[in-house]
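Page 47, continued from p. 46.
Same chain as before, 352 aa.
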Amino acid sequence: MEFKSKIKTIEWVDDYSKMVDQTVVPYEYKFVNITKGDDMFLAIRNMIVRGAPAIGIAGAHGVVLYAQELEKENLSREEFVAKLIEKAEYMKTSRPTAVNLMWACQKQIDVIKNSKSDIKGIIEELKQNGIKLENEDIEINKKIGDYGAEVVPKGATILTHCNAGALATVGYGTALGVVRSAYAKDNTIQVFADETRPRQQGARITTFELAMDGIPVTLITDGMCSYFMSKGMIDMVVVGADRIAANGDTANKIGTYTVAIAAKYHNIPFYIAAPLSTIDTSIQSGNEIPIEERSHEEVTHINGKRICAEGINIINPGFDVTPHELIAGIITEKGILRPDYNKSIAEAFSRI
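Result:
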């Protein structure tokens, strides 16, 4: 039986990008229409759209929006192509850690460079490529889910951190794709979700979408995972990823590394679920992954209200890197990659 999620996070409609505004979930579930390239840049930066695969698609859509704007400037084809490539490179910089953004924008740049069409033709090719990437994302996620379900024990309780679900992708999920596929086979599966400070993606978003889909979920605070692991209440951990190095080191939402250490101590398998587009083979280890430093207000405030004294020092990295030694497997659309990751990752890319 195939599990059908009720959520479609982002899609191209006519001449604009339609997406769920994730800054207001769970208080509201509403869509916004992005009609300009710079607005898409800000939607990515301000996390109206978030999750590595989803912001990749958003970036691809953003390139189309820039193309539509440039069409109105009465440029020659040569000028149009040069300016559009410049805009696409700019779109890549909207957030630094998730490599899917750079990957998807580059896919659009390749379309621009390889096109033999006039300006209108280039724009149409970019639209169709963006839609193709959307559809492929859902199919890739379903494959990830099905491969991952094979290692989920019957009746398992799965811990996840942050949100790697339908709302982090086009509409199925990577880590939660594994949950959805496993639940379709065994409805005794349940999830423990870390709250994921400071932006509360686990509390706000993961619990929201699992509740929407009727999958049992228990919310815990970030500091509680070791307690439940020690009580034998967690069977496995599955999280998403924003960038994976060639050796398997994985950047994910801040706090993931802590969960991985606790899982290793308690002999609980810790899995990454991510498409191959999240793997950056140009970097050899996690030491090379750029870590986004986010607004201090994310730490000092909750729902707009200050929770600490004024004037204190704040450091707010958005991500941390889990060393490959702590990872039992990387669940991809090409199967589950196992150590040695340098070898298994290279083999997976050879099958593309």
